[in-house]
Amino acid sequence: MVNELDLIRIIDVDYIKDYTMKLTFSNGDVRVVDFLPLLTGKLHEPLKDLDNFIQFGLNHWTLEWYNGADFAPDYLYEHGSVA
Fold first, then answer.
1. Distances in Å between the alpha carbon of 22 and those of 31, 49, 53, 67?
2. What is the CATH number of domain 4-82?
3. Distance of alpha carbon 22 from its chain centroid, rounded?
4. CA distance 22 to 66
5. Within a 10 A sphere around the Cβ of 47, how many other Cβ atoms?
6. Is 70 strand, coil or helix?
7. Which backbone phi and psi does 13 adopt, to 5 degrees?
8. Per-residue pLDDT tens for 14-64?
9. What ranges do the domains of the chain cover?
10. Which residues, other chains included, contact 7 with Cβ-Cβ below 8 Å and sequence gap of 6+?
11. Which residues contact 53 (CB under 8 A, 6 or more apart)?
C-alpha cells in the first residue's frame, strides 16, 4: 500500500528570509521550513552561504539548487512547521 506522503510534491515556494521558506505541497498543506539545520553533507554544505542558498528553483517535484542539491518533498514536509 502506498502512503499518501510517498507521492507528495512541492507545488509552490515563497522565500521568507535567511534560510526560511514557506512551501505548499500537493496535498494542500503549507509548511514553513528552516533549512539551516538541514544543510549538512558535501552537497548541502555550500548552501550555508546565503548567496548560494537563494539560488534555488522549483522543478516538477521539489526545490533544486544551482549545484544540483535538493531534498525529498516528504523530508521537507516532515521537517516543516504548520504555517
1. 6, 19, 15, 21
2. 3.30.2020.10
3. 9
4. 19
5. 22
6. strand
7. -140, 135
8. 999 999 999 999 999 999 999 999 999 999 999 999 999 999 999 999 999
9. 4-82
10. 26
11. 19, 35, 39, 47, 65
To which residue does cell 526545490 refer?
63
**Residue matched to cell numbers 506522503:** 5
| Band (1; pLDDT cuts 50, 70, 90) | very low
Q: List strand residue ranges (DSSP E) for 1-83, in order.
A: 10-17, 20-25, 30-34, 56-58, 63-65, 81-82
66 and 52 Cβ atoms separated by less than 8 Å = yes
**Amino acid identity of 70?**
D
